[in-house]
């Protein structure tokens, strides 16, 4: 049980690094959807669309090297070789990407329909971010959760502060401070958001830069080929995930009439962000358990540990699902600046459940990571991407962003089920399926009753929260008490 306590301590620290930036992003949602700051929902749609491209290219440029680095560092005797090779591959990728973009900048701008001015900022965000991938992974590998969290928190504080200054205070200060007149540009709000992102990314890289003085700039080409071969399915998987998570914005832009597309994207993206509370939990959990998966792989009874980890995830996630759904109408008032965006609120429970399914899939993915069968990550996530693309293309013209929400849920649910079925063949883990299904069905039922049946009645919602948690306490009393004893 001690190793589980250590896991939860790591989850808590990583959770701070994950929760704090995401919470800040939701606070910024309030500012970005305020009509006095960003006057049109279509402009917020443009911002969301650009961030979609950032997500996609972040995955491509990382080459699946983060997971590959974890695997080979634990597996190879010459660990310094692994560290050097991973870092150099990322550096070379960054240089090539920046060079190619400078050559084809205007062609790219014309093809995707985004201003080359925006793209010039975005490409440097991508380059700087990818240079932090291996330094961050190395901190996780060493268990330096505190330093990892500190850098992440500083990054978001810089980004948040610059957003506040540039979007809210800069214009008013130009009369008192002439030096600021050279910074302020009328109707430059969208660019200010991406400039803030770039500066924050540079600060993170500077804080991590000592890492690049510790490595030897010699790559082991044979090792690099093996790492790329291992990481390529992870890259495909990550790209498929980015399609599942964000590509619906691009499809909304292409499939809806141009007169309403950006507005619909803005409304959808704003409400989608309220599902972040499930993502926060899933991401923090994933950050802690991924190194744990590899370190436990060769130990006796490791499969029992993996089963308990997923079971715990499902129990906590079920409670979070009911809690967030019940409080959605409170959260929308707090975090979304204008009622125009509220019209998409009915899709948020669907996205919350979809992200819950994604978290379950990420826990189930242990079998192909520890057995080096990462090709199945590519197969499963590619199927999810195909489902996402197909259903979006079919549903968007008729149902707009509701079709996107449904497509996301079906894709993640299918991926989780398929991973469990295939995993049973290659790496059987004794999951308590009946117990997990019980909690999932109960949480979905209570959430549906509260939101779609008695949405205006907060007492019914609070009763649903109570029922969910009292059931958990009755069934898991012994486990809860053991964790409390160990924590003392």
What does it look like?
The chain is an all-alpha fold and 488 residues long. It has one domain (2-487). Helix content is 83%, strand content 0%. The protein has helices spanning 2-32, 41-62, 65-75, 79-112, 116-130, 133-141, 145-173, 189-208, 211-214, 221-255, 258-272, 276-296, 302-326, 328-335, 348-364, 366-370, 375-399, 401-426, 433-453, 458-487. Helix 3 (65-75) runs parallel beside helix 6 (133-141) and helix 13 runs antiparallel to helix 15. The radius of gyration is 23 Å and the shape is globular.
Bin the helical content. over 70%
Give start-end ranges of low-pLDDT stretches: none
Global Rg: 23 Å
Order of helices and strands: HHHHHHHHHHHHHHHHHHHH
Q: How many distinct helices?
A: 20
The proportion of strand residues reads under 5%
Q: How would you sum up the major sheet?
A: none
Number of domains: 1
Report how far the terminal alpha carbons are from each other: 13 Å
Mean model confidence by pLDDT: 86
Helix-strand category: mainly alpha
How many strands?
Answer: 0
Summarize the structure.
This protein is an all-alpha fold.
């Amino acid at each position: 049980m001690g190793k589980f306590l250590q896991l939860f301590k790591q989850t808590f620290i990583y959770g701070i690094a994950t929760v704090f930036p995401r919470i800040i992003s939701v606070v910024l949602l309030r500012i970005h959807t305020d009509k006095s700051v960003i006057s049109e929902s279509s402009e917020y749609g443009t911002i969301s669309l650009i961030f979609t491209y950032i997500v996609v290219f972040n995955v491509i440029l990382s080459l699946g090297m983060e997971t590959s680095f974890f695997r080979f560092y634990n597996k190879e005797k010459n660990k310094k070789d692994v560290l050097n090779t991973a870092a150099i591959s990322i550096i070379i990728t960054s240089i090539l990407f920046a060079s190619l973009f400078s050559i084809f900048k205007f062609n790219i701008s014309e093809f995707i329909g985004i201003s080359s001015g925006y793209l010039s900022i975005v490409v440097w965000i991508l380059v700087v971010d990818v240079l932090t991938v291996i330094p961050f992974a190395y901190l996780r590998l060493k268990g330096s959760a505190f330093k990892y969290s500190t850098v992440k928190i500083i990054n978001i504080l810089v980004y948040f502060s610059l957003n506040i200054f540039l979007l809210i205070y800069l214009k008013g200060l130009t009369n008192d401070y002439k030096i600021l007149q050279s910074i302020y540009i009328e109707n430059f709000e969208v660019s200010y958001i991406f400039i803030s992102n770039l500066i924050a990314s540079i600060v993170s890289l500077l804080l991590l830069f000592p890492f690049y003085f510790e490595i030897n700039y010699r790559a082991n080409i044979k090792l690099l080929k093996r790492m790329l071969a291992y990481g390529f399915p992870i890259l495909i998987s990550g790209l498929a995930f980015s399609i599942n998570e964000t590509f619906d914005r691009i499809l909304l832009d292409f499939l809806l009439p141009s007169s309403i597309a950006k507005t619909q994207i803005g409304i959808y993206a704003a409400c989608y962000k309220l599902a972040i509370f499930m993502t926060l939990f899933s991401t923090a959990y994933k950050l802690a358990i991924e190194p744990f998966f590899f370190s436990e792989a060769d130990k006796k009874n490791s499969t029992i540990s993996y089963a308990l980890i997923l079971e715990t995830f499902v129990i906590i996630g079920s409670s979070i699902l009911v809690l967030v759904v019940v409080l959605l109408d409170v959260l929308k008032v707090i975090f979304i600046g204008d009622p125009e965006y509220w019209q998409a609120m009915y899709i948020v429970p669907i996205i919350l459940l979809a992200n819950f399914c994604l978290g379950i899939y990420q826990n189930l993915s242990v079998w192909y990571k520890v057995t080096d069968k990462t090709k199945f990550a590519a197969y499963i996530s590619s199927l999810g991407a195909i489902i996402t693309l197909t259903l979006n293309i079919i549903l968007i013209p008729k149902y707009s962003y509701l079709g996107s929400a449904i497509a996301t849920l079906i894709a993640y649910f299918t991926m989780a089920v398929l991973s469990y079925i295939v995993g049973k063949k290659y790496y059987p883990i004794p999951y308590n399926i009946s117990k997990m299904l019980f909690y999932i069905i109960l949480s979905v039922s209570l959430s549906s009753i509260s939101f779609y049946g008695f949405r205006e009645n907060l007492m019914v919602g609070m009763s649903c929260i109570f029922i969910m948690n009292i059931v958990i306490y009755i069934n898991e009393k012994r486990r809860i008490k053991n964790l409390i004893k160990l924590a003392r």
